[in-house]
Design a protein that fits this description.
Layout (H helix, E strand, L loop, with lengths): L3 E2 H10 L4 E6 L1 H10 L1 E3 L1 H6 L10 H6 L6 E3 L4 H5 L8 E6 L10 E4 L12 H4 L4 H7 L9 E3 L5 E3 L4 E6 L12 H16 L5 E3 L8 H7 L1 H8 L4
Parallel strand pairs: 9-10
Antiparallel strand pairs: 1-6, 2-5, 3-8, 4-7, 5-9, 6-7
Helix pairs in contact: 2-8
Length: about 230
């Protein structure tokens, strides 16, 4: 497996005019991150005895030994795909200048989502060198993710978390509580515990976005992803 010098990854993203990094998750898991002032790997949360919303990718993350790694996207998947993000309705938006400040030395970059790694060689799972990254990395390809492996499973926000984008499914739970309002309140409460004050934006979808239909079609999963409490 080839980790790339963070300087090379940063320079390539800047050359492609990538200015922001994204991480999407459930409301409950995002609240945990806000209380800790850091993105945490799935394995780190589990090892610490904390609770997090289950993800479809959990089994693959264990199989491929990326359970203790922190993932970030170079594109807003919800906007790009015009559907809700499978990983959650909360999107943390970071300044790309976070990269040279992480002190991880190297960053791994996937060629495709690990959910599709079965039968692929290491060379078809990860970018192997700077030349490959320059030739094959595509801005807007959300299968190509940044993976922070040597950060102890924790990536502090520092001053680089610029805003939070929250989906609005236009749904209420069985108690009649608006899911967006419930999620917003949970995120704000988590920030108050850690002294953060990050702007929360209601996601403004295009007319062709299918997110609300998706949320409506799987209401049980939607309630789970928007519930601040586990």
């Amino acid at each position: 497996m080839a980790g790339l010098p963070s300087k090379h990854v940063y320079e390539e993203l800047k050359a492609l005019h990538v200015t922001e990094l994204h991480h999407a998750n459930s409301v409950a898991t995002s609240c945990l991150f806000l209380r800790e002032k850091s993105l945490l790997s799935r394995g780190t949360v589990e090892r610490s005895g904390l609770k997090q919303t289950p993800q479809k990718s959990d089994s693959q993350d264990r199989v491929y030994s990326i359970w203790y790694d922190v993932f970030m996207d170079t594109v807003d998947i919800h906007n790009r795909a015009s559907r809700y993000n499978e990983y959650g309705p909360v999107t943390f938006v970071f300044d790309v200048d976070l990269i040279p400040k992480t002190n991880t030395g190297k960053i791994w970059v996937t060629k495709c989502n690990p959910m599709y790694w079965a039968g692929k060689s290491e060379g078809n799972r990860w970018f192997q060198n700077k030349h490959e990254l320059s030739e094959e990395f595509i801005k807007g390809d959300f299968g190509q993710m940044l993976v922070f492996r040597h950060c102890g499973g924790e990536l502090p926000f520092g001053r680089f978390l610029t805003r939070i984008v929250l989906d609005d499914p236009k749904l209420r739970n069985e108690d009649g509580v608006d899911l967006y309002s419930m999620a917003y309140g949970g995120l704000r409460a988590a920030m108050s515990e850690s002294g953060l004050n990050i702007p929360i934006e209601r996601r403004d979808c295009s007319l062709r976005c299918k997110c609300r239909k998706g949320y409506k079609d799987d209401e049980n999963r939607t309630y789970q992803m928007f519930d601040p409490f586990l």
